[in-house]
Design a protein that fits this description.
The chain is mostly helical. Helix 1 runs antiparallel to helix 3 and helix 5 packs antiparallel against helix 7. The radius of gyration is 18 Å and the shape is globular.
Amino acid sequence: MQNTNKKFSLTQFKLFLDILVLILFVAINIPGTTGIPNHEWISFIFALPFLIHLTLNWKWIVSVFSRLFQKLPGETRFNQIWDSALFLLMIFVSFSGAVLSESVLPALGIHLEIDLFWRTLHTGMANLLMLMFGVHLTMHWKWIVSNFRRYVLQVS
């Protein structure tokens, strides 16, 4: 008899959180479809699951960065550099997006003059961010597929 009373594991939580992060990331990157107000609000909402993602992976982050000047396998070193660049770009895109806010900041009583420089920079960096996010997904694809099959499709 199969035990149907399974505990929800940390890996399952991470998988479902990552699926949420992906869905929100895709929604953020189609502002022509969602509209600018939704684009901004979804971007602010995205911050929480993204920070939880970083927190849950903090042990790996600390582990890899504690060996910054030591010899690491090529894939691990590439992942370290790529994810660092992705994180910095995410911060920059978020900052430039906040500077351009037409909905969220005005709703909070903060009104900034929108500058074409920031809009151009935000759009270009956001496009680069999408590419880098795609590579990030590719680097972790084996983990994603195996856990998706295991926990969503329930195929061993």
